[in-house]
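Morning!

This is the sequence you dropped in the shared folder:
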Amino acid sequence: MRWFGRRGAEARPALVRALGTYAGGAWPAAYETQVRDAMNNPVAGRAVRVVAEAAAEVPVYSADAAHGPAAALVTRALVERVAAQLLLHGNAFVQPVLDADGWPAELWALAPERVAIEQDARGWPAAYRYRAGEVATRIPAADGAGRPGVVHLKQLNPLDDLTGAGALGAAAEPVAVHNAAAAWNKALLDNAARPSGALVYESGEGATLSAEQHARLRAEMEAGFAGPGNAGRPMLLEGGLRWQAMSLSPADMDFAGLKAGAARDIALAFGVPPMILGLPGDNTYANYQEAHRALWRLTAVPLAGRIAAGLGEALAAWWPGLALALDLDALPALAGDRAALWAQVGAADFLTTEEKRAMVGFDNPPRHAVPGRS
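The structure's back. Tokens below.
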């Protein structure tokens, strides 16, 4: 249903969105650069993998045995890739690959940064153009029978009803801060982990070092005293030179707290409890088990449900009545919720046995799991 009426034909923003320039400097603007920085960051890379792998572990099933082939198309590898794309980019484009009879034989997840949406005169998607290198492939949004050529899954974007918004935009700045803090720490280590000090030339007559003397002294200092391998090495100074030791002030040392704060912001942006990533100082959850349960309940399961619902709705064009669902009872992380439900239902003496069986799901249609799901 088109709730918003007719749309204008004006151009919509590109899928690859930029963050712009911040007051503290320019953070990476291109999506590819942001992804590389995030996946090379230990906190962001681990957070993305934790969420994507958890979403892929949620079993997908169909209650109708006739829809088993459709459920078999939703593999773990597909869900993991689509989950990572939704988490980072906010958009995932899945292309059904048809066999000779016109039935989906496989589902391909396209790289979202390579996809451009072509619109009709009213602003609705008419086709998807996928560009790989110099080759561009145009895929119609639907065929003559109304079957989709590309399944577009997207996260909520309050500013655009055609494209989604991922978590990478919110995480790009703390990722850049965390990477900069790590580079700062590395530079300190390369320079004996502290500003070593200053050489002061005291001639007593106001004379200064010549350019040749200055260059020779700098070369000798870098070769003989800089770096972690020369930490603590005694220094022999010539006449007229005095060593003045220097150290970091408490404000300069605050980079450690800045790095820890950036790490927590990264975990928050991707929906992972900091305790799961081993970040210190987090007391939000009573224990690791509660944090693990929050990861599944608040992040992984909703993401897997969005993917299953979107793919099931699209595949229903070939399998009418298809409804893909999640088997949450098979998740060990949610076993505590299941045990609590059983205890509540078992203590309800006013319910009949049939009502109790229905409440715990025993009277639901049989779940036709995906054989050999990989």
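Headline: The longest strand covers residues 91-98.

More detail when I'm at my desk.
O.
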